[in-house]
Design a protein that fits this description.
Helix content: 25-40%
CATH class of the largest domain: Alpha Beta
Largest sheet: 12 strands, mixed
Structural class: alpha/beta
Number of strands: 12
Strand order of the largest sheet: 3-4-2-1-5-12-11-6-7-10-8-9
CATH topology of the largest domain: Isopropylmalate Dehydrogenase
Number of domains: 2
CATH superfamily of the largest domain: Isopropylmalate Dehydrogenase
Order of helices and strands: EHEHEEHEHHEEHHEHEHHEHEEH
Strand content: 15-25%
Length: about 325
């Protein structure tokens, strides 16, 4: 099994995190994608003993070495200094990983953080890995889910201004999102009969219509429809009490209605060790749960815990997918 590890924004901590991969023995072959010289320079600044070798698909990996699939930088990269000239490079790295996953060369991909703003500043519309992967694979709908702290939290909407969230949560969107979460919990997480805890949108899940009608007009009808299809769904539940241990223990995953409804709780419980997973794709993709941390780039102080967790989860998902 070969996993692709994209090195992310070259001015950020992605290359530093890759330096930590040889510290462990992995039950898979890990290939870092990025500029070979840049990665070697960043890695040797913090891990001088790590050998860098060129990736050859049919080659035999050397124990303790880091395999790198070379994609050239457009401009020299300096830790902590963003350069819009390298925006296309960041996307070229992603494109190579996606192509390898689609061809079967890679069993999945694990992504280091990118900087959305600098890519957009280069004139390339980019709202995030999740949306880019969906477009690149021709997937009409994907779902962002974070895993950590004993929780799995999926999102009905992702990077939207809060004022736009209610209109975005339609019956078709919610139904399709729940079907994707249900399917991937079964196929990629090994939950034979998953139960999904569904949050309401409004405080107190609308308080019977006194604090909003979305629960009555949108969420509950969808849950009733999907229960008739055989899905095990609980809700809509008030988000302020959904994340207590007793309630969480009754489900395999949570569906939150918007980004900051579900993720602050999970990140409080697992920051530095959480994993971002894109559900609904025809390929496996996991990611770190943090940003580029420009202030830490090149310092040797970047914590690889989230990257390690993302690699571990990608390996587990790939094994389940390959199981008869």
């Amino acid at each position: 099994m070969i996993l692709a590890i994209t090195s992310g924004e070259p001015a950020g901590i992605g290359p530093d995190l890759c330096a930590a991969l040889p510290r462990r023995e992995w039950p898979a072959r890990l290939v870092v994608i990025g500029d070979r010289a840049m990665i070697a320079a960043r890695i040797h600044a913090v891990e001088p003993s790590v050998d860098i070798v060129d990736y050859v698909h049919d080659g035999v990996p050397r124990a303790g070495a880091l395999e790198v699939l070379h994609v050239p930088l457009a401009s020299p990269a300096q830790p902590g200094r963003l350069d819009a000239g390298n925006a296309r490079y960041v996307l070229d790295v992603l494109d190579r990983a996606i192509a390898g996953c689609q061809s079967g060369e890679f069993a999945g991909m694990v992504t280091a953080p990118v900087h959305k703003g600098i890519i957009c500043d280069a004139g390339v519309p980019f709202s995030g890995h999740t949306e880019y992967l969906a477009e690149a694979t021709g997937t009409p709908l994907v779902v962002m889910m974070l895993v950590g702290g004993g929780m799995r939290v999926a999102l009905a909407t992702t990077h939207l201004p809060l004022k736009d969230v209610p209109a975005a949560i339609t019956r078709p969107l919610l139904a399709d999102t729940l079907r994707i979460v249900h399917r991937d919990l079964r196929e990629r997480f090994g939950c034979a009969a998953p139960t999904i805890l569904v949050a309401g949108l409004n405080p107190h899940a609308g308080e019977g219509g006194h604090m909003g009608l979305e629960e009555i007009e949108v969420i509950t009808p969808v849950l009733d429809q999907l229960r008739a299809e055989g899905l095990r769904l609980t809700g809509p539940l008030p988000a302020d009490t959904l994340f207590v241990p007793h309630t969480l223990a009754q489900g395999d995953a949570v569906l939150a209605m918007f980004h900051d409804q579900g993720l602050p709780v999970l990140k409080h419980a697992s920051f530095g060790g959480g994993v971002n997973v894109t559900l609904g794709l025809p390929i496996i993709r996991t990611s770190v749960d943090h940003g580029t941390a420009l202030d830490l780039a090149g310092s040797g102080r970047a914590d690889p815990g989230s990257l390690f967790a993302a690699v571990e989860l990608a390996i587990a998902m790939a094994r389940r997918q390959d199981a008869p």
